[in-house]
Amino acid sequence: MDSSWMTSDTMRTVLFLTVALPGTGFLLLALSWLVGIQLPEKVVARATGLIYSAAALCVALGAWLIRAAHLPSLHADYGDWFRVGEYAFKFELYFDGVSLPLLGLTTVLTGLVAAFSRTYMHREPGFLRFFLLLHLFGFGATLGFAAGSFDLLVGGWELVGLSSVLLISYFFERQGPVTSALRVFATYRSADVGLLVGIFALHHFRHSAALPALDAHTLDPQQATIVGLLLLLASMGKAAQIPFSGWLPRAMEGPTPSSAIFYGAISVHLGAYLLLRARPLLESSPVALGAVALVGLATALHGVFVGRVCPDAKTSLAYAAVTQLGLIFFEIAMGWTTLALLHILGHSTIRTLQFLRAPSMLHEYHRIHAAAGGHVEGGGLSLEAALPFPLRRRLYWFAVDRAHLDRLLDSVAVRPLSRLSAWLVGIDQKLGGGPPTGPGPQLVAPAMTAAMPEQVDVLHD
Amino acid sequence: MTNLLVLDSFNSLPLVLYGLLWLATLILAPKQDLTGNRISRWLMVLVGTALVYTANHLALYALGWVLSAWPLIEDARLGRLTRTLMVLGGVALAAALGLIIEHGSSAGAADPWLLSSLSATGWAGGQLPFALLTLAVIQRKGIFPLQSWVPQAMERGDLLITGLVLNGHFGAVTVARVALPLLGDASRASLTVLSELGLFTAVLGAVVAVADRQPRRLLAWVAISQASTILAGLESLNQQAITGAMLHWMVVSIATSALFAVLRLVEVRHGLAITGTEYLGLGRRFPRLAVFFVVAGVALVGLPGTLGFISEDLLMHGALESHPWIGLAIPVATALNAIGIFRLFGIIFLGRRLAPTMIVPDAVTRERWPLAALIMLLVVLGLVPQMAINLRSAAAVKLERIENPAAPSGEAQSGEAPSGEAQPGEAQPGEAPAGAAQSH
Questions:
Q1: B residues 238-267 near A, CB within 8 Å?
Q2: Quick one: which of A152, A142, A285, A269 has its CA closest to A212?
Q3: For residue A16, what pLDDT is reported?
Q4: SS3 A87
Q5: pLDDT tier at B414 (50, 70, 90 boundaries)?
Q6: How far is CA A353 from CA A234, A250, A357, B205, B342, in A?
Q7: How far is B114 from chain A (nearest CA, A)?
Q8: Range in A229-233, A341-345, B77-81 the model is least confident about
Q9: Distance CA B14, CA B5 (A)
Q10: How far apart are CA B304 and CA A439, in angstroms?
């Protein structure tokens, strides 16, 4: 067989397409919308299917080529994205045994979710918006998993977060999704400070944030602890680890297919992926490793506990995902990285299926109940029954309130910040002589609506 | 009378960009904002800004400063604070320039009124002119403790005109064109204080935006916060950070122009003052305006896929050594600002529409294409940033050489300076490089 085409350039091109295809899909859909072309649902769905099928094929072909060339990994440098003086931001992708499976998972599951959504989102007013954001997510996730440096990983990471939040507020005419989206966005952005400062610190200590060169001797223990804890903070936000787990049930306000791909599969596992990539650094710091293990175990217990009292299917699935993510964190801390990777792959697949199945499953339950002429009792053991009633009630209240974590975050972060901000606003308005008393900024038409009496407090909702 | 105005690698691109933004804003402005009296204000801001960007003669510089501030000084709706601060800034600038001219005369400058002559004399004076210039810069850029005029002017006055005044970025221009080249060591040492105040303002503005609900004020705080980091970059003695600061200047100008315009268009369509105490749910009715708002907001807070991501990356990496706090200030400020922008987006475009508003269209053609051009600029330059970097590299190298004469040759460093751009060392700010356009 002529193998002349199996060159490094072919591999680089094939794998580049994995990232470029979803991005191209997003740009094309966005431009068509901008110039006013109304694409039929069928065209949008078919183009999406085609894009993700091609991307999945590219991943498979790239993996096969790397294997055929007996390479352990491929570090593809596509040159400088931009350069100023001695500083260059390289566009480099890194394909190895960690990124390739996750890229395959992302392209396959996103394509499947897109196929499912063609029917599920049929005739929704925001059909095109949904697919646009799905492509943006696909681009962000593939970029994040394929990034050859933490700097580039940030790009994918932020795009995933942005698309996630915009999809949570998909049904934006209801207040619930809007307030939930803001809360999720605030959580993401707060935790992302850890990622940005961590990368900044990595540059400060090491003058590089490239992934392939990371090893256990990259930083001394103290530096590794600082960077490790900052990256852990970012991972905790993305992967809904305690104390940030409260955003995940709020995120269920979005359409079910997006819940499946974001919170059952890819988005939440991006946090675990960051730790997998940072694992060589974490090895230098027992403190950071201990923190990862502790957070993971505590979150797993928290997820089990809260998940047992969740009243609806999607929230219940969300806490099941939280539990598994906690275990994955623990596995990473223990150094069981292969197990963690397999856990991510298996968990993503099964959880996506469960999320996509949830609406029809509920419908079938209702039919079974109706056929049985009443409520069908659930089976299984109730270990809680062995506990004394007062303790059981206390624990129930504790679990229903999701271990008071949202209240805790509110009291230690949101409220103090809001109070400080309100105090500063008050000072500023006093300095400026209070609110305007005149006709105001150019009122242009007589009042046609009555203002809603109550104020909207989006951060505390 | 020679060399009254100069165009060089530092001011030419900002001047063109400002002109385009002014034009775009004018096209986007609702008809009711373009009455005879208001058009004269628009023109005053344009002429004043162009003078400050290009003046080589200090009298023209001061005239430009006053002209651009005049629409706010004469606007009775703005209240005492804004008008007093605008006057204070002008007086401080005039006094500083007066002291500089006096020093130039005694130091034997060929023409003490010309920036190019003064920069050749070297500075041996005291700190007073620099302190006065600092005061003017702090006032005009809305840096702590003189930041309050910006939200007040935005809230009470003409939103678009105030936006144009703010987007002149006179603070950065004055630092680059006057303070650094003329005041020498006096300014280099003390500019650090100004930069630290800028970083503090970045965080302060972002924190205030968390609770302020009034959309105009909220947007003003976010704009102040994002613009405040420019000074830290300019003063960092480092080519990356200086380039980052210049790109950030572009980002803040383009993105806030789009955001102010969308907010104004929504206000006009909604027909009521937007108080921020309710969700307006206008996204269904104005989807294009909503998208323009989101993209401009995302660019302003430095999310990827936009020029904002590039500028903040350069700012953070470049200013790492000179301002270690920038590594914390920018992430914290942008995180909070992003929340503020999303909150504002929610207030305007999300939620249930409570009652009917007038039947008005989404962005009409006259509005759609200027807004599309602005956001396309942010996105395209974000995806292919080298083009924008090359346009600013000569100016960045020149500023770096002024701040740090021992810096290695910029030509060797960047290797990207486009042909036809002034090379480092060819000209000082305020002095036209060979081949540059001059007005005689």
A1: 239-240, 243-244, 267
A2: A152
A3: 94
A4: strand
A5: very low
A6: 27, 20, 6, 45, 32
A7: 32
A8: B77-81
A9: 15
A10: 41
Which two three-digit tokens encode residue B206?
């972002």
* Shortest Cα–Cα distance, B164 to chain A (Å): 17
Partners of residue A190 in chain B, C-beta under 8 Å: 335
Q: Percentage of residues in chain A with pLDDT exceeding 70?
A: 91
Q: What is the mean pLDDT of residues B210-235?
A: 91
| Predicted pLDDT at B358 | 57
Sign of CA dihedral B257, B259, B265, B267: negative
How far does A99 lie from chain B, in Å, by closest CA? 21
Residues B210, B217: Cα–Cα separation, whole Å:
11
What is the domain count for chain B? 1
DSSP 8-state assignment for residue B178: I
Determine which of B85, B279, B315 to mutate to test the interface with A (most A C-beta atoms within 10 Å).
B279
B435: in domain: no
Q: Which residues of B touch A34 (CB under 8 A)?
A: 372
Of A117, A116, A158, nearest to A141 by C-alpha is A158
- Is A230 within the bounds of a domain? yes
Q: Summarize pLDDT for B269-300 with one digit per residue, the tens.
A: 888 778 888 888 888 889 999 999 999 999 99
Amino acid at A349: T
* Interchain contact A460–B (C-beta under 8 A): no
Cβ contact A433–B80 (<8 Å): yes
ipTM greater than 0.95: no
**Any idea which of A46-55, A294-303, A370-379 has the lowest mean pLDDT?**
A370-379
How far is residue A98's CA from residue A235's CA, in Å, rounded to a whole number? 17
Contact B243 A192 (CB under 8 A): no
Q: Which residues of A touch B268 (CB under 8 A)?
A: 444
A418/chain B closest Cα distance in angstroms: 6
Asked, for residue B236, whether it belongs to a domain, the answer is yes
How many Cβ atoms sit within 10 Å of the Cβ of residue A358? 20
Q: Which residues pair with B410 in a beta bridge?
A: none
| DSSP code for A88 | E
For A277, phi then psi, to 5°, come to: -70, -35
Q: Kindly determine whether residue A186 and residue B313, on different chains, have CB atoms separated by under 8 Å.
A: no
> Which secondary structure element, helix H or strand E, spans residue B267, and what is its range?
helix B239-270
Residue numbers of the domain that contains A246? 182-366
Task: For residue B381, give the 3-state DSSP assignment.
Answer: helix
Instruction: Note whether residue B221 is domain-resident.
Output: yes
In this predicted structure, what is the pLDDT of residue B27? 96
Residue A450 lies in a domain: no
Q: Is the pLDDT of residue A235 over 70?
A: yes
Q: Residue window 181-240, chain A: list those with CB within 8 Å of chain B.
A: 181-182, 185-186, 189-190, 192-193, 196-197, 200-201, 203-204
Region B138-166: what's the mean pLDDT? 93
Closest Cβ opposite residue A203 in set B239, B303, B317: B317
Q: Which residue has the tokens 């050594």?
A: B321
- Among A172-186, A268-282, A360-374, A386-400, whose mean pLDDT is lowest? A360-374
Q: Name the residue among A173, A204, A449 with its Cβ closest to that of B357.
A: A449
Both tokens of residue B247?
């790109």
Taking the CA atoms of B293, B296, B297 and B298 in sequence, report the sign of the dihedral they define.
Answer: positive
Inter-residue contact A428 to B208 (CB < 8 Å): yes
End residue of a domain, out of A129, A148, A167:
A148
CA–CA distance, A326 with A343 (Å, rounded to integer): 11
CB of A6 within 8 Å of any CB in chain B? no
Whether residue A344 is found in the same domain as residue A221: yes
Inform me whether the C-beta atom of residue A449 falls under 8 Å from chain B C-beta atoms.
yes
List Cβ neighbours of A409 (8 Å cut-off, separation of 6 or more): A243, A244, A246
Convert the pLDDT of each residue in A156-167 to its tens digit. 999 999 999 999
Which of the listed residues A338, A366, A394 is the one where a domain comes to its end? A366
